[in-house]
């Protein structure tokens, strides 16, 4: 093998793959964006042609992925420090910060324009606002300036069902904002549970998460308080236009489990073994992932059953 071929081979090995660019989109977060937006679109009172519906969800997903790429571009410095994020494409040296920035901006423009053309200008504008909120308001401002970062910034992740609803109807209504509120109130206990067993990451990166600024005891109190409010909201949603008996049954079971998990976290102290605390906090975090998907799954089930006279009240 010649020197030139060896050099070409090493260059190819260093080049970013499709998987690296896909990882920039935060596919796990994108899956939540896609699902909640789909539920918002299908739960709307106006039916959408399948091709238009697919196109709308596709570009909402791309917009969500663009937000993730821009988030990774801005947060590259702290991602290199945190154990949970140092394997991401930029810290791993697969993609440069500049490439991630251009990639994110290009996808942002594409998603907003195409959603507006495929559905309506209101939906495109709302997607643009969501991307702005996540990248500028949360990532660039709140994340590094206040322990309430995840509380206020969580609104960005709660907008997709509203965008889906607007894509279908072109208007606002109470129901999509109930879905927004469900995700918005879920976000703090979900992320604070993660912060409890990954606190050293945020300490090392200098991110003012509640665990860092106020301590673990205060974080546990906040998790319990938000979980109580979330449970009340989740059960009340059963009696709205997107609820029904099936949703109510799911909400009662899930929120009983979630409240029990929050209570277990609240009762933990630093005198308890670190392994026990880690187990309880990690278990609650895993349940929180299932919690939101099942609530939205129940809303979707109620929607799909309505034409047969089985969904809703």
Automatic annotation (TrEMBL):
This is Protoheme IX farnesyltransferase. It holds the Pfam family UbiA. It catalyses: heme b + (2E,6E)-farnesyl diphosphate + H2O = Fe(II)-heme o + diphosphate. It is found in: Cell membrane. Interacts with CtaA. Its EC number is 2.5.1.141. One of its GO terms (molecular function) is protoheme IX farnesyltransferase activity. Keywords: Cell membrane, Heme biosynthesis, Membrane, Transferase, Transmembrane, Transmembrane helix. It comes from Epibacterium ulvae. It is a multi-pass membrane protein. The gene is ctaB.
